[in-house]
Design a protein that fits this description.
Length: 185
């Protein structure tokens, strides 16, 4: 029985560091939005030394018994822009009478960052709110931690929110989960 249905067509990570950059009056147009460049604003600006790296998961460790289709597409590069031209593409997750569909992704090494989820082709149902879908995401430094329910085996949200429910908009994306992890469910 299908009650909610969506496709996650991108799951990537943003993190990394670069050499420090100084901010001076001559650099304001490069670091500030157009129209906001001024010496006064430059004096209040600090360049974040981190750079973004988009990293695909290395492998799929586990998937639920029902509701997941085309999961291998989560391991392939994507354009990074939502498109309506191929609404049938992407990894599909369906909420069935057996419960929510789920996968456990391994990024291959412990990293610090977050993920970006993009949803397309939503069908209104139990797990949707209008043109958005609620998605539960769990991060873990180990596969056991990412698979554990809150309170099990010390799985907590104390030092970092590692288990959360987010709303992903139809034909849009969200980035979240700034944490240390290797696995994402």
């Amino acid at each position: 029985m299908r009650t909610a249905y969506f496709a996650i067509f991108m799951l990537i990570l943003a993190t990394g560091t670069a050499a420090a950059q100084s901010v001076g009056p001559n650099q304001t147009s490069a670091i500030l939005p157009p129209g906001a460049a001024s010496e006064e604003m430059a004096a209040r600006t600090k360049v974040d030394e981190r750079v973004r790296r988009l990293i695909l998961p290395k492998r799929i460790v586990w998937k639920s018994d029902a509701g997941v289709k085309n999961e291998q597409l989560l391991l392939e590069p994507v354009l990074g822009q939502t498109s309506t031209s191929d609404m049938g593409g992407g990894c599909r997750f369906e909420y069935t009478d057996k419960g929510p569909a789920s996968v456990l992704l391994d990024f291959g090494v412990e990293i610090h960052g977050g993920i970006r989820l993009e949803a397309r082709d939503l069908t209104t149902g139990r797990e949707s709110v209008g043109k958005t879908v609620r998605v539960r995401v769990r991060f873990g430094e180990s596969a056991d931690e990412a698979m554990a329910e809150m309170g099990e085996k010390g799985a907590v949200n104390d030092h970092s929110t590692r288990d959360m429910i987010v709303n992903v908009p139809w034909l849009g994306m969200v980035e979240f989960g700034e944490s240390a992890f290797r696995f994402v469910r």
